[in-house]
Every structure is written in C-alpha cells, then in structure tokens.
Amino acid sequence: MSKCLLITDLQGRNFFAGAARVSMPFVALAMAGSFLTGCSTISSIPVSRVPGEILAAERKDDFIDISMLRLRQDPPEVYLLGPGDVLGVYIKGVLGNEQELPPVHYPEDSNRPPAIGYPVPIREDGTLALPIVDPIKVEGMSLVEATKAVHNAYTYPRQIIKENEEQIIVTLIQQRKIRVQVIREESGGKDGVSKRGTGHVVDLPAYENDLLHALSETGGMPGTDAKNEVMIYRGMYDKGMDADVILDELSKSQCQDQCADHCFCDERPIPDPPYVTRIPLRYSPANPPTFTKEDIILNEGDIVIIRSRDQETFYTAGMLGGGEHPLPRDKDLDIIGAIAIAGGSLGSTGSGIGAIGMGGGGGGGRRQQGCQPSEAIVVRELPCGSSISMRVDLNKALQDTSQRILIKPKDVVILRYTITEEIGNALLNMIQINYFMNSIGRN
Q1: Predicted confidence pLDDT, tens digits, the chain (443 residues)
Q2: I need a surface site. Which of 82, 157, 216, 267 has the fewest CB within 10 A?
Q3: β-strands 64-65, 5-8: how paired?
C-alpha cells in the first residue's frame, strides 16, 4: 500500500486522500478534465431555503389502522323479515295435504336450521300472498310475529282453521340478498393469484351487506400496493353523468387566476361527487374519520372500488441510474431511504456519507473506490405546471433530520458528485495509471 496524499482546495477544504507521488502535470490534467466533463448543469436551491409549504408532506408513520368494528354493521338480535326473503309456510288443510308431512329444506350453509313448509316469497310491498286470505303484511316482523300474523289471518274473522290447534308453521328458507360489485385494482391476491383489475359480483345476505363482508368475500383487506381507502359509488348513471360535467368545469376554473401571477399557488383538492363515499383504512389520530354506520352499509347496485397505487412512485437518475420505485404505503420515506431503496450503498466504505451511492455505474451494484457522491437533487412538481430543484447535502442529512426531505409521488431523485469529489476521483484515476506505468517501467 502506498502512502496517502492530502490535497486541499482553494477554500482550504480537504477533498482527497490518494496514493503517494503525483506529478503536477497529472494534477492539472485531472482537474481540467473534471471541470470539463464532470460538472452538472442542474441549478438547485439548498433544501434549507425551500418554503415550508413545498416541503410539507403527509406523515404516515403515526397513522393507525381503522377498527374492523367500524367496517361492519351491528348484527341484529332477531332477524327481521323484508322483501326478497323466502319463507317456508305450512297451513294444514290449506297449504299442504293433511295426509302428508310438510316438506323440509336444508340450507346450503350451517348457520341456519332446516326450514319446514312450502316456499312463499315476501313480495316487494312486504306482504305474503297465501290462499283464501288477503295479503298479509310481514315486513319488519320476526318469524314469531309473522307466524302470529298468519294465524290471525286464518282465524279471524272467518275461522278457516281452528284457533287452538297448531296447524300453522312459518320458517325462513332463504334470506334476502343484496347484490353489489367489488372492483379491485391491487395485485398480490390469495395463493399468488393476482387481483389486478378483477371484478366480483357479490350477493350479501341481509344484515351482512356491509363493507367488511364485501372485502372478505373478495380476498380480504387491500394489499400494500392498494390505496389506504375504499370508495363506494352509489346511485344511477344519470347522477354520475351530471357530476362529471360539474367536476370538469370546476377543475378547469380552479387556480386559473392564481397561476397567471404566481409560480406556486395553494391548489385545493376537487371535492368528491355526492354519490361517492370514501372509507379510510388508516388515519391520523389527530384527524379520526367521521363516517357513520350508514356509510358502510351497502345497498343494491352499489360499487365498491379499491384503487391501486400505481402513481405513488418516485424516479431516480444520476449515479443511482434511471428507475421508477414505489413509495411505501404505511411509512414515511426520506431522501436517505429513497437512495437505499434505489440501490445506493450506505456505509460501504469508511463511515458516514462517504459510502453513499453506487459509484461509477449507477444502479448496478458496483462500488467505486475513492470519493462517493454526497449531493442529491430532488426535482418536485408544483401546481400550475412548474417545478423546483432542491439540493440536499447528504453529509448534513445523516446528522441533521431537518435536512432529510420527505419524498413525494413523482419526485425525481438525482444522486451526483460534488465538484470536489469529481476532482478527487479524477486524481485517483491518474495516480493509479501513473503507479501502473511506473511498475511496468521497473519490470
């Protein structure tokens, strides 16, 4: 091993420790080559001088999961009948032969006991249509109450059956169901089956027609590549068409005047149309969700949508190589973490920031001896079509958390050498060539 040589720049900063003898022509040539080829033309602002509203980002580390109890409705103490239920009714001598036993129906699931009687559906107006008597209103009744109502209809006033004889049986053959659609855009389904772009038509039994049961029937809670919310679309086609026209006009007019005079304006999010309900699955304790039980109960024709996070990505360039990387869903990502996710080495040589970066190849895992890049540029889009380039000194960022800018979707992270590091690496290459040539000459 050769001894180290310390070279100091014009400001008195030590920027290189290399091998022993270096001739001045080699030094001059290396410095000239570095200035000609190694300098970046991206103009940037130190992160400490960037306005706070640009750096502000939603903090995810403190978020907590929503309670599963808030995603389902309370089960009833007693099942109440309604239109769509199918009852088993046996009325001796009226609905059924006196010499035959009533039919028995065994349910497909084991949650309910066998049903006895002939199938009679409850009609849209909540009534039962039975022989001889007028329609009997049973909507909102329990089975016990419905049995009593049928018994009264055949006992009073015409006494079709004997009052004191047990000749009427009313049971539940099939519960009414609510049909909804569930569209899931995330991947990583059960047993390795992708749920990307899948749709499900789900029939939910009464009192189980809520968001939790709809998710359970279609693969469970959303994965980490899905957004932390579920959207429920309600209503019919005409409502959606009318809302689309209103939102289109609102998006065109919003922030138009401000953008004409300012490069950065406070762009407010466009509100959801009235037929859309958002149910968050994670939230900040400081802002708990305010949705009600009625919001998670699904009705006939509702559409449940789980959106993917395809657009929640950041990009890399420079010494990290070109690439697109997904942002974590449930935790914050700062500039140090972004470099690590993109394949940058942390602590590969020596200690501190001297080991950050891929050195030489960018993204290929190859580590270059000598100075490692210690400057990051974060290019961030602003409202109204503009952007800003923010410069981060990674040496400071490792020691000062205020320098660790949080990464937002669509950010571009560029890792590059400082001029000092460029000169140092160029000198190191020259010294290695000089050492090699001297070795050949001696041999």
Answers
A1: 333 333 333 333 443 333 334 444 444 444 445 444 444 467 889 998 998 888 888 788 889 999 999 999 998 899 999 999 999 999 888 887 777 888 898 887 767 788 999 999 999 999 999 998 999 999 999 999 999 999 888 887 767 776 655 678 999 999 999 999 999 988 754 444 455 678 899 999 999 999 999 999 998 999 888 999 999 998 776 666 665 665 566 555 555 555 544 444 445 556 677 788 999 999 999 889 999 999 999 999 999 999 998 889 999 998 888 899 999 999 999 999 999 999 876 544 444 344 344 444 444 444 455 677 888 999 999 877 789 999 999 888 888 888 899 999 999 999 988 888 778 777 877 776 776 677 776 66
A2: 157
A3: unpaired
Last residue of a domain, one of 120, 143, 174: 174
Residue whose pair of structure tokens reads 């009687």 in the numeric block: 117
Q: Cα–Cα distance between 400 and 48 in angstroms, integer?
A: 11
| Number of separate domains in the chain | 3
Residue 79 lies in a domain: no
User: Does a structural domain hold residue 100?
Assistant: yes
Residues spanned by the domain of 235: 67-74+178-306
What is the amino acid identity at position 48?
S
DSSP 362: S
Kindly state whether residue 81 falls inside one of the protein's structural domains.
Answer: no
From the list 427, 414, 401, the residue with the least C-alpha distance to 358 is 414
212 and 273 housed in the same domain: yes
Which of 442, 441, 440, 439 shows the shortest CA–CA distance to 20? 439
